Amino acid sequence: MLAAAIVEIKRLQLAKELDLVDKPVAIPLSVLWQIPQYFLFGAAEVFTNVGQLEFFYDQSPDAMRSLCSALALLTTSLGNYLSSFMLTVVTYFTTQGGNPGWIPADNLNKGHLDYFFWLLAGLSILNMLVYIVSAKKYRKKKAS
Fold first, then answer.
1. According to the model, what pLDDT value does residue 143 have?
2. What is the C-alpha separation between 8 and 2, in angstroms, rounded?
3. Does the N terminus or the C terminus of the chain have fewer Cβ atoms within 10 A?
C-alpha cells in the first residue's frame, strides 16, 4: 500500500504539472511504475497463503484438516467483502458536504486515492501488531 500511495502521489503531481486535473484524460505515466506494488503484493500473497495453509494443516486436529483448509480460502473471500465495505464507508464519509471525495467516480485526478492507500497501509500496520500479539500468545499443538 505504501508503494501504491507513492505512485499515486507521483501521478497526481504529474496531473497538476501538466494541467490535466480538470480534464478526464489519462495521465502520461508509464504502467511500469506499478511493478513494485504488484510484485510486493504478489509476494505477500504467496507467503501468506502458503503459511496459512501450512498452519491450518499442521495445527488443526486430524479430523478437521480439510475443513481448516477450506477456512483458509474463506478468509480470502471475507477479506474481499471487507474491502468492498471499507471502500463504501470511505466513499460515504469523504463525499460529505459536496466534496468530490477520495475516490471520485468521474475523475480520479480530482480525488485523493493516495489517502485511501495510506489508510490501508495504516490498517495493515495495525493488523501486523495484532498478529504479533496473537502469535506471542499462541501455544503450538503438541506433536501426536
1. 67
2. 10
3. C
